[in-house]
Amino acid sequence: MATMTLKNVPAALVARLKEEAAQNRRSLNREALARLELSLAVRWPSPEEKVERIRRLQARFADLEPMTDEFLERAKTEGRR
Q1: Which of 39, 44, 56, 66 lies 20 to 30 angstroms, CA to CA, from 13?
Q2: Residue 5 covered by a domain
Q3: pLDDT tens digit string along 1-29?
Q4: Cα(57)–Cα(53) distance, rounded to whole angstroms?
Q5: pTM of the full predicted structure?
Q6: How many separate domains does the chain show?
């Protein structure tokens, strides 16, 4: 396994990481590794994928009544009956 050294880590960040490690019953090293693995496991969508998702949602909800102030007021009133 490789070894990595982090430099200039803010003291407040180290303190928070130590607190989390204690709560999770892990060493500081194990907590840092777990958090790095978790952050890198998330795959962020590309801008093109985000646009496509938005377009699909717009198409899916195109037939719905717009959410005007009147619509929202009516929804609140009807929900109280």
Answers
A1: 44
A2: no
A3: 899 999 999 999 999 999 999 999 999 99
A4: 6
A5: 0.53
A6: 1
Per-residue model confidence as pLDDT tens digits over 61-76 = 999 878 899 888 888 8
Closest CA to 31 of 42, 16, 41, 43: 16
Task: Provide the sign of the torsion angle of the four alpha carbons 58, 64, 68, 73, taken in this order.
Answer: negative
- Pick the closest to residue 19 from 39, 1, 35 (CA basis): 35
Residue 75: strand, helix, or coil: helix
What is d(CA 27, CA 21) in angstroms, rounded to the nearest whole number?
Answer: 6
Spell out the residues 6+ positions from residue 51 whose beta carbon is closer than 8 angstroms to its own: none
Is residue 4 a part of any domain in this protein? Answer: no
